[in-house]
């Protein structure tokens, strides 16, 4: 039985703006088992990346966070910022999305990749360079020696993503947050990134929190899943169980929208996070909705062992 490495309790994240507060994450509760790949899935803007970045305090100054984050039995949500900085890269790594923005344009690629190796693993410059080359070769970056001596703007989008992946895992963290690591990549490179994440789990027993909107990647990689919609977790459980027996109408709609299932879109739009509805947040788009759904917010409940859903129609 794997131990829990990360637990999130009643996490809320909002952003203060002149036109009102944005409720990006509402009352999130999660447990991530050591050595597993836990997927957090949902459409763009549902709050999954905000949730992940809040764990490392990587949110803008106008963010307000409440709740509890426990990592390796330590409540890190109450730690000072300096202590959190020491966790970043060494204990908890991050593969950020948008490599064009995440990589420093003024530093050579090699300098960026070896930095966490030297800082967190006490490797010499020579050792860290060799390790970085091996890592980039494993990620199938062509001519890694040369590419490490170049700047980010000299690389293609796929090459930047591989450099960013190496940067995230270079410190050998116990927990890796992979934020949309396959976004914008072609099928071949996407497969290589997926393979690297799988190898990290199997060989190094790295725990991975995978943030993705790609259901096929999630189905292939993840042991457990949580589905987010409009800032809420609406379904959660073992990955195979969720894909075999999706219960929430939104998650069913996501699966039906896959090309292999006929590309059936979910009608309507997600609600504004500035002005959320009183009842179920999927009310306006749900084919099963009744008047009560729009008035009373449903609670998340366990239907079978480990399989939870936020819907009043599910017993």
UniProtKB/TrEMBL annotation:
Catalyses which reaction(s): Ni(2+)(out) + ATP + H2O = Ni(2+)(in) + ADP + phosphate + H(+)
One Gene Ontology molecular-function label: ATP hydrolysis activity
SUPFAM superfamilies given for it? P-loop containing nucleoside triphosphate hydrolases
Identify the GO cellular component terms for this protein.
plasma membrane
Compartment(s) of residence: Cell membrane
InterPro entries for this protein: AAA+_ATPase, ABC_Ni/Peptide_Import, ABC_transporter-like_ATP-bd, Oligopep_ABC_C, P-loop_NTPase
Q: What class of enzyme is it?
A: translocase
What keywords are assigned to this protein?
ATP-binding, Cell membrane, Ion transport, Membrane, Nickel, Nickel transport, Nucleotide-binding, Translocase, Transport
| Protein's name according to its UniProt entry | Nickel import system ATP-binding protein NikD
């Amino acid at each position: 039985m794997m131990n829990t490495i990360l637990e999130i309790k009643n996490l809320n994240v909002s952003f203060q703006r002149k036109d009102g507060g944005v409720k990006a994450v509402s009352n999130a509760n999660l447990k991530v088992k050591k050595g597993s790949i836990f997927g957090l899935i949902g459409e763009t803007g549902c709050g999954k990346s905000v949730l992940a970045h809040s764990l490392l305090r990587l949110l803008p100054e106008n963010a307000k966070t409440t709740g509890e984050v426990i990592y390796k039995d330590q409540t890190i949500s109450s730690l000072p910022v300096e202590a959190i900085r020491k966790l970043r890269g060494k204990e908890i790594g991050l593969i950020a999305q948008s490599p064009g923005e995440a990589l420093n344009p003024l530093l050579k690629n090699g300098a960026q990749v070896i930095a966490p190796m030297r800082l967190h693993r006490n490797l010499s410059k020579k050792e860290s360079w060799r390790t970085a080359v091996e890592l980039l070769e494993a990620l199938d970056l062509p001519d890694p020696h040369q590419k490490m001596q170049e700047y980010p703007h000299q690389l293609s989008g796929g090459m930047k993503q591989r450099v960013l992946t190496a940067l995230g895992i270079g410190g050998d963290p116990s927990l890796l947050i992979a934020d949309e690591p396959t976004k914008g990549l072609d099928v071949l490179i996407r497969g290589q990134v997926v393979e690297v994440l799988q190898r990290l789990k199997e060989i190094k027993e790295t725990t991975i929190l995978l943030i993705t909107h790609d259901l096929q990647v999630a189905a292939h990689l993840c042991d457990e899943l949580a589905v987010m919609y409009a800032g809420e977790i609406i379904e959660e459980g073992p990955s195979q169980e969720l894909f075999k027996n999706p219960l929430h109408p939104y998650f069913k709609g996501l699966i039906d929208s896959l090309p292999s299932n006929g590309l059936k879109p979910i009608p309507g739009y997600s609600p504004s996070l500035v002005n959320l509805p009183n009842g179920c947040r999927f009310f306006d788009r749900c084919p099963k909705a009744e008047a009560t759904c729009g008035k009373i917010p449903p609670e998340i409940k366990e239907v079978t062992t480990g399989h939870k859903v936020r819907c009043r129609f599910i017993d």
